C-alpha cells in the first residue's frame, strides 16, 4: 500500500475505490469501514498507525514528506517532483505549468446564429417563378434553336465553303443569273434645287445662269425653277 502510485494519480479515468458518493467521509469515522466498493463490499480502514508511527516514518522513510493519503482510494500516494512543483506554483499564485503562456493570442470559434425577423410566413412572391430567370431561359432556348449554342459533346458541323461562280457568265441557268445580278447603286435623293417650289436662295440669278449655261454639258444641268401654278 506504500508503493509509488503517482502514475495512477495522473489518470483522470481511474475508477474510484469508494463509491459512497459526494458525502462527508467523517460519517464513517465511527464505523469499521470507510464505504463500499463497486461490488458493494465494505472497504476496511487503512491502518495508518498513531502519531509515534507517523514520526518514525518521517525519520526512516525519505519519501515521507511527499506522501499523502487518498481517502477515496484508501491508499498512500507518493508525489513526484513535477507534482510538487505544480503544488508550489499554485500556492504562490502561478499557473500549474511553467510553459503556459497566458498572453498567447487565441481566437475562439464564434458560432453566429441568425434569427429570422419580420413576418412569420414567407411572402407569395417567394414561391412564384422569377421573371428575370424566365427571360434568361427563353434567350438560351432561342440560341439553342438557332444553333448559336451547341453541346460540346456533339460532333462539329461541316463547314460550308462559299460557292464560286462566274458573274460574267452568259449561261441560261436562272439560279446562276439571279445570284449574279448585282444591286444597282442607290440614287441620290432629290434636294431643294429639284423641287417644284424651291426656296428663293436656290434660284439662279442671271449671272449664274449665263455662267453655267455656257459650260460644256450644260444640257444635262437642272435649272431650279419655281412654278406658281403648282403651289
Automatic annotation (TrEMBL):
Q: Per its UniProt record, what SMART domains does this chain match? A: BOP1NT
Q: Indicate the principal place this protein occupies in or around the cell.
A: nucleus
Q: Which Pfam families match?
A: BOP1NT (PF08145)
Q: Which UniProt keywords apply?
A: Nucleus, Repeat, Ribosome biogenesis, rRNA processing, WD repeat
Q: Which GO terms describe its biological process?
A: maturation of LSU-rRNA from tricistronic rRNA transcript (SSU-rRNA, 5.8S rRNA, LSU-rRNA)
- Molecular function terms, GO-annotated: ribonucleoprotein complex binding
Q: What is this protein called?
A: Ribosome biogenesis protein BOP1
Q: Which organism is it from?
A: Lygus hesperus (Western plant bug)
Amino acid at each position: 500500500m506504500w508503493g509509488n502510485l503517482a502514475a495512477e494519480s495522473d489518470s483522470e479515468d481511474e475508477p474510484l475505490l469508494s463509491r459512497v458518493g459526494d458525502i462527508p467521509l467523517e460519517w464513517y469515522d465511527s464505523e469499521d469501514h470507510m464505504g463500499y466498493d463497486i461490488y458493494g463490499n465494505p472497504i476496511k480502514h487503512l491502518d495508518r498507525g498513531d502519531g509515534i508511527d507517523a514520526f518514525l516514518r518521517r525519520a526512516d522513510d525519505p519519501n515521507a514528506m511527499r506522501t499523502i493519503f487518498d481517502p477515496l482510494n484508501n491508499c498512500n500516494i507518493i508525489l513526484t517532483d513535477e507534482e510538487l512543483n505544480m503544488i508550489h506554483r499554485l500556492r504562490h499564485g502561478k499557473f500549474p505549468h511553467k510553459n503556459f503562456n497566458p498572453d498567447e493570442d487565441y481566437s475562439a470559434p464564434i458560432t453566429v446564429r441568425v434569427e429570422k425577423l419580420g413576418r412569420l410566413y414567407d411572402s407569395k412572391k417567394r414561391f412564384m417563378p422569377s421573371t428575370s430567370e424566365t427571360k434568361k431561359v427563353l434567350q438560351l432556348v432561342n440560341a439553342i434553336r438557332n444553333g448559336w449554342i451547341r453541346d460540346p459533346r456533339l460532333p462539329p458541323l461541316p463547314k460550308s465553303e462559299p460557292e464560286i461562280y462566274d458573274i460574267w457568265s452568259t449561261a441560261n441557268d436562272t439560279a446562276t443569273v439571279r445570284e449574279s445580278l448585282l444591286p444597282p447603286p442607290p440614287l441620290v435623293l432629290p434636294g431643294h434645287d429639284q423641287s417644284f417650289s424651291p426656296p428663293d436662295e436656290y434660284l439662279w440669278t442671271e449671272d449664274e445662269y449665263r455662267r453655267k449655261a455656257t459650260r460644256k454639258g450644260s444640257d444635262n444641268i437642272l435649272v431650279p425653277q419655281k412654278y406658281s401654278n403648282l403651289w
